[in-house]
């Protein structure tokens, strides 16, 4: 729910500003995950060792494998696009979809549905491509929408610098606390940067893809919208009531 400067609340579920593209991306990712082997819900992939083998094959087929991406295979240029809709496990999926739901709706409303869709796919593609270029010798599969969603976070930071979000921090006993979005996102970027410096080529989180996506998203919003589309000024700033 968004609180305007007049103090009235406008629910996202009402009116022409409904973020259909954000909802569509969330539904698509969820359906693909449930039907795939990673969810463990599709009996067609079997169980035990057979299921693990199916998961490995699935991630290699639809994810980004840097050594394969630069091999010259004509099918590989599509890999960073298909990888955006594949997730490794339930936690990976739910975490990404939560952040997309929290920050995607407002960003989509400001950009427009078509522009938001192109921005999301392009940013995610380039984020995965950047990671693959930096780890060209890696044979690990890279999947997930994190790079694209990081781009949404970057754009959100520029477009809504004074928005406020309710956040849960584990080291504060998961107490729901309200912070300016810029503080939460800068803190998030700092964590990604620190983690990326310590990361190696073993399986794990692609923090570099997060940083690339966030940077591209922020720069795109800055170049495309300038200061004219930013929410701020003397009026009471808009407030997001979602919980990342």
TrEMBL record:
Its main location: membrane. Keywords: Cell inner membrane, Cell membrane, Hydrolase, Membrane, Protease, Transmembrane, Transmembrane helix. Residues 81-225 form the Peptidase S54 rhomboid domain. InterPro entries: Peptidase_S54_rhomboid_dom, Rhomboid-like_sf. It is found in: Membrane. The keyword Cell inner membrane applies. Pfam families: Rhomboid. GO terms for molecular function: peptidase activity. The chain crosses the membrane at residues 78-102, 114-133, 139-160, 172-193, 205-223. It is a multi-pass membrane protein. Gene3D superfamilies: Rhomboid-like. GO terms for biological process: proteolysis. Signal peptide: none annotated. This is Rhomboid family intramembrane serine protease. It comes from Streptomyces javensis. The lineage of its organism: Bacteria, Bacillati, Actinomycetota, Actinomycetes, Kitasatosporales.
């Amino acid at each position: 729910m968004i609180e305007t400067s007049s103090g009235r609340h406008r629910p996202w579920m009402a009116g022409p500003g409904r973020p259909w593209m954000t909802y569509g991306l969330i539904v698509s990712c969820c359906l693909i995950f449930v039907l795939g082997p990673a969810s463990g819900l599709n009996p067609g992939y079997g169980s035990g060792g057979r299921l693990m083998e199916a998961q490995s094959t699935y991630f290699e087929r639809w994810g980004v494998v840097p050594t394969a991406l630069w091999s010259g295979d004509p099918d590989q240029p599509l890999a960073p696009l298909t990888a955006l809709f594949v997730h490794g496990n339930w936690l990976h999926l739910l975490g990404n979809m939560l952040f997309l739901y929290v920050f995607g709706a407002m960003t989509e409303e400001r950009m427009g549905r078509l522009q938001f869709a192109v921005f999301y796919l392009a940013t995610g593609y380039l984020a995965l491509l950047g990671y693959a270029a930096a780890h060209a010798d890696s044979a690990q599969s890279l999947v997930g929408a994190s790079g694209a969603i990081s781009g949404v976070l970057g754009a959100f930071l520029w477009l809504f610098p004074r928005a406020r979000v309710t956040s849960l921090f584990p080291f504060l006993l998961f107490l729901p606390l309200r912070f300016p979005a810029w503080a939460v996102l800068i803190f998030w970027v700092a964590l990604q940067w620190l983690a990326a410096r310590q990361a190696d080529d073993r399986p794990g989180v692609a923090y570099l893809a997060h940083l690339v996506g966030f940077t591209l998203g922020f720069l795109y919003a800055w170049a495309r919208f300038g200061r004219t589309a930013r929410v701020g000024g003397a009026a009471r700033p808009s407030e997001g009531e979602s919980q990342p």
